[in-house]
Specification:
Elements (H helix, E strand, L loop, with lengths): L1 H21 L5 E7 L4 H14 L3 E5 L4 H10 L4 E4 L5 H9 L4 E15 L7 E2 L1 H9 L16 E5 L4 H11 L9 E3 L2 H9 L4 E6 L8 E2 L1 E2 L6 H5 L6 E9 L4 H11 L1 H9 L3 E2 L2
Parallel strand pairs: 1-2, 1-3, 5-10, 6-7, 6-8
Antiparallel strand pairs: 3-11, 4-8, 4-9, 4-11, 4-12
Helix pairs in contact: 9-10
Length: 274
């Protein structure tokens, strides 16, 4: 009887061990929010990453760069996407809350002025763009176009794309008060596509046949000009975490920066950093 008891005891231990090995890994949730420019990269990377990692459960939202950084500072997201760098006041706020933002540049981008394909204008200088957006230039004939009023389309102030445009083009001048403010790159492209006399600006990954990209001072927005910084409105696209990422968040960031993730960056129309 003792021998039989020992056999049953060994079988029970073995069964528990097998059950432990067979049990699925606990799901790990990752919340990502922020820049609408970084959104298509984050969405596609999350989709591919989850297929490769059954334990990962990733939610991705596009709410604007300012919201992405705020979410990291407030602790409401694991990754904050931003198409601009953090401002000094955001860094100070993070420090006051014991948050240590860690920046990962996952792609390069060009902010490209776009017009309707029916518009004959092909190139604008930085000064001409500034004067269009601050309201000094009001008619297309002033820059070689038709004798028609310029319809200005811009991003809203929570946008990282707006912040970079404001710094590099407007020199922090105010946008003309009658500008149409849009909440995303896609909305800007759609507004320009639907109006022959509109001008807007989008990330390079949002260019499509419904809009015409302008050169800036004779320089075209390309991967090469983004990398060598000869294009005057180039920038990095960022993912922020609170301190060094750990666990599945660390694995996801490494995936985005690795060969597969950088391939996704290129497929989405942006410029790989690796």
């Amino acid at each position: 009887m003792k021998r039989v008891a020992k056999i049953f005891s060994a079988m029970a231990v073995l069964g528990l061990a097998i059950a432990g090995l067979a049990a699925p890994a606990a799901a790990e949730d990752i919340a990502i929010t922020g820049s609408t420019t970084v959104l298509p990269i984050a969405q596609k990377a999350a989709e591919v990453f989850m297929k490769k990692n059954a334990a990962a459960k990733i939610s991705v939202a596009g709410t604007g760069s300012g919201d992405g950084i705020k979410a990291i500072i407030d602790g409401t997201a694991d990754i904050g996407n931003s198409s601009r760098e953090m401002k000094a006041k955001e860094e100070d706020l993070a420090q006051s809350k014991g948050v240590k933002p860690k920046q990962f540049v996952v792609a390069l981008d060009c902010i490209v002025p776009v017009v309707n394909p029916a518009n004959p204008v092909k190139d604008l200088s930085l000064m001409q763009l500034k004067d269009i957006y601050n309201g000094k230039i009001k008619n297309w004939k002033e820059v070689g176009g038709e004798d028609k009023p310029v319809v200005v389309v811009s991003r809203d102030s929570s946008s990282g794309t707006f912040e970079v445009w404001n710094e590099h083009v407007l020199g922090k001048d105010r946008v003309r008060p009658d500008a149409q403010l849009q909440a995303s790159n896609g909305a800007v492209a759609q507004a320009v596509a639907g109006n022959k006399y509109a001008i807007g600006y989008v990330g390079i990954g949002y260019l499509n046949p419904q809009v015409k990209a302008l050169t800036v001072g004779g320089v075209e927005a390309t991967p090469k000009t983004a990398k060598d910084k000869s294009y005057p409105i180039a920038r990095g696209l960022n993912m922020y975490t609170n301190g060094e990422p750990k666990g599945m968040v660390k694995e996801f960031i490494e995936f985005v920066l690795g060969p597969e993730g950088q391939k996704i960056v290129k497929e989405e129309g942006f410029v790989p950093v690796n």
